[in-house]
Design a protein that fits this description.
Helix content: 25-40%
Strand content: 15-25%
Strand order of the largest sheet: 1-2-3-4-5-6-7-8
CATH topology: Metallo-beta-lactamase, Chain A
Largest sheet: 8 strands, mixed
Distance between the termini: 29 Å
Number of helices: 4
Order of helices and strands: HEEEEEHEEHHEEEEE
């Protein structure tokens, strides 16, 4: 197996186990939950509480890549992590607008990795993009470099993943559709991609107050990246982690 796929599979397996653990914890502590049906091939939506939804990536060729959150503050609509690719982010924007009956006004980037930030451009103008100061600075450095690298290499990696799908089995075969969706969505987005960095930043913590509920953004340093944001809903006992 090429080294890049070995690394990707190892990272994907660890992240998947961690994400499953977090999701199970949420389902245990939240008593209100029902599926919300929104027609997108990129994700499904799960209600966690009244006015709070988890957006779950379809890892069988979907283009969302990361998971996201939608929170209705009463007079504001918040999206936590706007997904990776433009087609998936457009679906997320429509879903958030339909569920909360208002446009998205706040988008939060949990960290600087491409799958958590590239949907930003779909929500502006109209929404403020919020991250930590560290994440904003890192995004402005890393995104141009990553996009340049992807334009040179994504097509090759997509072809390798599609070819490998024909010969492997087990866990490798199960995870390859996610990576095929990753590179396919990336290549589709590149012609229209515009790096959109946050216009509001904070350090340590930030409260955002709405007419019906408040959320707390908490900066965690030197974890998954040098600066990661956790979104807390204290009354509901829910946390969104990037």
């Amino acid at each position: 197996m090429p080294l890049f796929l070995n690394l990707l599979f190892a990272k994907s397996t660890a992240m998947k186990k961690y994400s499953v653990a977090i999701l199970l914890l949420l389902l245990l502590v939240v008593s209100y939950r029902k599926p919300d049906h929104f027609p997108s091939k990129h994700f499904t939506i799960q209600a966690l509480a009244p006015g709070v939804w988890a957006v779950i990536n379809n890892d069988a060729y979907g283009h969302a890549i990361c998971n996201a959150g939608i929170i209705d503050l009463g007079n504001k609509t918040v999206v936590f992590d706007p997904l990776m690719n433009i087609d998936a982010a457009n679906d997320l924007k429509r879903a958030a607008t339909e569920l909360t009956k208002r446009p998205v006004t706040i988008v939060i980037n949990s960290h600087y990795h491409n799958d958590h930030i590239r949907g930003n451009q779909v929500f502006v103008p109209g929404a403020s993009i919020i991250s930590t100061e560290w994440t904003r600075n890192q995004m402005s450095i890393s995104e141009p470099e990553e996009i340049a690298w992807e334009k040179q290499n994504a097509g090759k990696y997509l072809a390798e993943a599609k070819q490998k799908l024909k010969t492997v089995s087990g866990m490798e075969k199960e995870e390859l559709p996610m990576w095929i969706g990753y590179y396919e969505g990336m290549l589709l987005s590149h012609p229209v991609l515009k790096t959109t960095i946050p216009d509001l930043t904070f350090s340590d913590s930030l409260w955002i107050h709405g007419s019906n509920r408040s959320i707390k953004l908490l900066e965690c340093k030197n974890g998954h990246t040098g600066s990661d944001v956790i979104l807390l809903l204290p009354k509901e006992g829910i946390a969104f982690m990037g």
